[in-house]
Amino acid sequence: xxxxxxxxxxxxxxxxxxxxxxxxxxxxxxxxxxxxxxxxxxxxxxxxxxxxxxxxxxxxxxxxxxxxxxxxxxxxxxxxxxxxxxxxxxxxxxxxxxxxxxxxxxxxxxxxxxxxxxxxxxxxxxxxxxxxxxxxxxxxxxxxxxxxxxxxxxxxxxxxxxxxxxxxxxxxxxxxxxxxxxxxxxxxxxxxxxxxxxxxxxxxxxxxxxxxxxxxxxxxxxxxxxxxxxxxxxxxxxxxxxxxxxxxxxxxxxxxxxxxxxxxxxxxxxxxxxxxxxxxxxxxxxxxxxxxxxxxxxxxxxxxxxxxxxxxxxxxxxxxxxxxxxxxxxxxxxxxxxxxxx
Amino acid sequence: xxxxxxxxxxxxxxxxxxxxxxxxxxxxxxxxxxxxxxxxxxxxxxxxxxxxxxxxxxxxxxxxxxxxxxxxxxxxxxxxxxxxxxxxxxxxxxxxxxxxxxxxxxxxxxxxxxxxxxxxxxxxxxxxxxxxxxxxxxxxxxxxxxxxxxxxxxxxxxxxxxxxxxxxxxxxxxxxxxxxxxxxxxxxxxxxxxxxxxxxxxxxxxxxxxxxxxxxxxxxxxxxxxxxxxxxxxxxxxxxxxxxxxxxxxxxxxxxxxxxxxxxxxxxxxxxxxxxxxxxxxxxxxxxxxxxxxxxxxxxxxxxxxxxxxxxxxxxxxxxxxxxxxxxxxxxxxxxxxxxxx
DNA sequence: TTTATTTACGGAAACGTTTTCGAAAAAAAC
DNA sequence: GTTTTTTTCGAAAACGTTTCCGTAAATAAA
Lengths: 342, 342
What we know:
homodimer; alpha/beta; Rossmann fold; 3 domains
């Protein structure tokens, strides 16, 4: 028995049915001015009827437009990135674009191979937040060479001339530290993600400046880099608190380190906020229901995703490179809760 | 000045450089048995040297393989789906596949148009968790007609003959309810996501069965459907608790409803767990640090994503349809914490 | 040595679009 | 009534792969 070929309707079939040429049908569907209004109508009608869906690979090949952007982020199990994805997807949908998602898991190697693939023309543009393990941005140079528009958000690659959507990290770091000091802290530890990430550096600069402004010493021993392993982070923080019992404030530059701090304090029996006050960069939806409720610096993650996507699409639609001057800096907000309370 | 054409290296250019034909170069790169070992080596060497990256749209068009799967989920700002994405991405990468992500935001209409597009051949297969607003699965029929492999995970579409990766929802619903009853609850409310979702139904069946088994009445007034708006959910729960003060247990079938329950109890000054005990399906990483720590039914989200992807890739690689018999049911685990404590 | 088979490659068609070029018919200008 | 312009469409060439088919040389079988 001859299995029905199940021929997906394409332009050829559509043209035959309509007694028109392929080119006419194509133009009609693309609303070309060269096609008579009634013909357009007839074509669209038939296309609808036969459930025609253009082959994205054929049109991508011919038109050199993939209608797709790449979203490269370290992880997804993180409220900041989840919200950012939401914003990106929103704008992508509005522009009739598709979103390819890639997770680096903070690995430089993964990031490099992903970028390598994306430079091959699979996407019309890229949004990314660089991996903490990436020592520099040299692996992103091929993108620039390939003319693939790129916009950074939150975690930027230094030395790449393109737009970046960030938050006021220095100011936020300053404000967070100052808040701890104002609440009575005299010895504040700073937990950072990675040495190489610029946002960690900027937040730390704010931290240092705030300490200095309030006449407190900036002790290098108070600065603890985190790892990818939560248990290990908890252990490090615990050791820190044990070795330096005078520590009465913790400034976590990233969400997971705040959780580890809670764990460490719980294990050591240190009361929060009475003995140790904790503040963290975080977009946790449940921050208000933690025990105690966590004071956070909340980044406008959703808006950052939207903004970054908007900048990218402006470049794509105008067929222009993304310029550093199009960068945007959004403001984080300090949400005071009991973890830094009196 | 003549701007350098910046010709991306393709097979043609590669063939010219090597004094070989296009077909030979293509076959060499694809490790065809027809090509001599030393030629392969020479070709690959040159490809590496010129940074050749095959055009995905050309090869997708010709080979009818997109090397891409579609992931269709309701939202991403949800720990369950975040973890599932992680699992999916892991397997996709292992199979050298790309992942297109689509968010339905629980909208049936969005879901339908997404599916419509995906049926056009953009992806080799689809993983999805259906939107709560989808009344039935009729919009998924086109996929089956188009022969696009589909695997459901967690939220399934009834009536579609394909594999599904779920958890033991009935048993979990039963266990959760029984746990509340054993902890002394006599009047347990059930908060569900949506009327149409099968998982909500199954969990509710377990809930009903457990009540009956323990000689408790199943009052329809105890069953409250949620909405997409968190504040509205909180209000409804608050009204429920006010109108029926005898309620001493809440079973939330989804994470956000647990948060709303916390909010409602806090607003009403009801103590958890003394006056009201709360249990919830949830994958919150911070469940243990909530106030009070939340007793959860934790689904193996990461594993579900992995499993669903594995089933899909088996079908794709063997070029066979996905069969319902390949479905898998994983087990959720009850994690008892203080929100249901004595 | 002659014939059959295998090895290693090239030519060209095909995938389904978009787009360039051309051209007939209709409308407008003269 | 002729010429010019506009309107509307068709033929065919791309886009960069994969793959079918053919074929020369090299090897094996006779």
